[in-house]
Amino acid sequence: MSDLLPPSATKQERALASLSERIEQLPVIYRKLWNPDLCPVEFLPYLAWAFSLDDWNDNWPEHIKRQSLKDALYQHRIKGSLQAVENAIARFGTTANITEWWQQSPKGLPHTFSVDISAQDNERQLPVLEIGTGDDVWLFCGQAIPVQTSRVYRVRFKVRQTVNSAGKSYVYAGVATLDKDFNALAGNPGAHRYCCVDGRSITTADGWQIFEGEITGEGNGSHNLFRHGTAYIRPMFIVNYNGGTGTAQVAELECWDLFENRQLVPNPRFENGKQGWSTRSAGKTVPDNAPGTIQAAAFRPDADLQDDIINAIKQAKPLRSDFNFNVGTVHAAPLELSAHVHQVVLSRETWE
Predict the structure, then answer these.
(1) DSSP-derived secondary structure letter, 179
(2) Residue 341 class from Cβ within 10 Å (0-12 exposed, 13-18 middle, 19+ buried)?
(3) In a domain, 223, yes or no
(4) Which string of DSSP letters, residue by residue, matches 36-95?
(5) Domain-located, residue 337
(6) pTM over 0.70
(7) Is the CB of residue 182 less than 8 Å from the CB of residue 115?
(8) Number of domains in the chain
(9) pLDDT tens, 231-286?
(10) Where is the region Disordered (predicted)?
(11) Do 169 and 258 reside in the same domain of the chain?
């Protein structure tokens, strides 16, 4: 680029012009950044801001984020209509029956509508790792993940016990800490840093359990601190501890870098089978040798998804501002969320 600055330009102005020229030469394909299908996943939140999305959750799966972006323009055009509400619900892959007050028998409260979601109709068969070896199993992410201990990392673990042990079965989840040479670091508390869940007893009656925890900084006073000298981690979990004789199913183990809002585990939900999971924690490379089998388990919309759907309905700006949200048909009890919005929830034993 030619220097168009006048002879009187200062050194600072010429430096800024040079910097601008260098920026223009960066290999950034702007067209991709504005395409919901092609935009790199780490830039999707910025695209959501640019598209003025009313509802966004960094924990949504990638396909829901991209679909929300693709629907943004049309959703702005139809805000306030029945179609807007239907589209907001469909984005989450759920099926619902929307009934306006004058369609109900007997007629409902004027200027209201009802959203009914069947738990059974929205079941999905998803892969889980089933471990029933009659012994406790320690599994680690096969990829050694570089970390900066000054950042905050969040581990999320979803597990259930399908066959009880003769005694108690405990679960743990967190990270194994490695130095710059991929050697395992030791030191209390614990063999690893169980920042997510530290020895919780679960039974078949508990159903699916979700645990979350964070780790940042260095020290030996807590499972929420990296060991001194940590350069790499391997997210990990333990089931059927200690010497349990039952069977456990693991649905996911995620590890998020909250600074970059990026999920770090390559195969967190076993969609690629047991690939990338190992019984070994130390070393630059470890074998894929996870025990257990991949099974299919039925999942229904959990409480987080229900909240997301309710928020999406509110952001659709329906002209009739009151609605009931129903999941299933039994043990319903109204719970006020905010002015003019009510949710109907199930008791624990009737949901997952």
Answers:
(1) -
(2) middle
(3) yes
(4) TTTS-GGGHHHHHHHTT-S---TTS-HHHHHHHHHHHHHHHHHTTSHHHHHHHHHTTT--
(5) yes
(6) no
(7) no
(8) 3
(9) 999 999 999 998 778 899 999 999 999 888 789 999 999 999 999 999 999 999 99
(10) 269-289
(11) yes
